Amino acid sequence: MYPIELRKITKSFKNASGNGELLILDSIDLCPQVGKSTAIIGKSGTGKSTLLQIAGGLDAPTSGSVFCNGTDLGTLSDSKKSLIRNRNMGFVFQNNMLLEDFTALENVMIPAMIAGKGKKECRDRALELLEKLGLTDRLDHLPGQLSGGERQRVAICRALMNSPEIIFADEPTGSLDEENAREVENMLFDIVSSEKKTLLLVTHNIDFANRCDMVYRLSNRKLTLEKG
Description:
- By secondary structure, the chain is an alpha/beta fold.
- The protein has one domain (5-227): 3-Layer(aba) Sandwich (Rossmann fold), CATH 3.40.50.
- Helix content is 35%, strand content 26%.
- It has 7 helices and 10 strands.
- The protein has helices at 48-55, 78-88, 104-114, 119-132, 148-160, 178-195, 206-210, and strands at 5-14, 21-30, 37-41, 63-68, 71-72, 89-93, 166-170, 198-202, 214-219, 222-227.
- The strands form 2 sheets. The chain has a 6-stranded mixed β-sheet with strand order 6-7-8-3-9-10, sandwiched between helices.
- The chain is globular, with a radius of gyration of 18 Å.
- It starts with a strand and ends with a strand.
- The mean pLDDT is 93.
């Protein structure tokens, strides 16, 4: 059983004119492996982020199924899908999506608080993660007081807060300079290796993608294996 399975995923949108539909994804299968990193590359507008959002249950396919540990997400209510995302999935986005009025420590604690864990347990876990990623001296800083690289490290900590099986990363280094981008890359791969997580990555950075165990290219609505 895979942590996430995509089976015959198709996605289409109505044309802006309202006449007909635009097919973005066509009968895509994808099964990221436990403890491995998988990258999806391709030109802008090909549907990479859409595919990632479907895999994470943030969007619904037009047809096909997404399974999380054997459970078909399409059969679940929104609240049950949210519960699975909270417990089994972690998300890292290009713009980090941190809450501006909360400190780094508070931002990291939020997923565990939502899961109903005690405040001390949440704080201890958040401190552990922030220390691991070199952010001990940034605990009480607001996102606006952090550098781009620091904000992404906080976002990674938040994604890991509930020890998810799978990490979804959508251009996590796209807004960073080369040094900070490399640092974030190294952290993600170290986590996948040491904690046996599954990483599903969308990126335009070919060098970043090629560090993954498997690389797929999304083109002409189809997914083709390039490495692995």
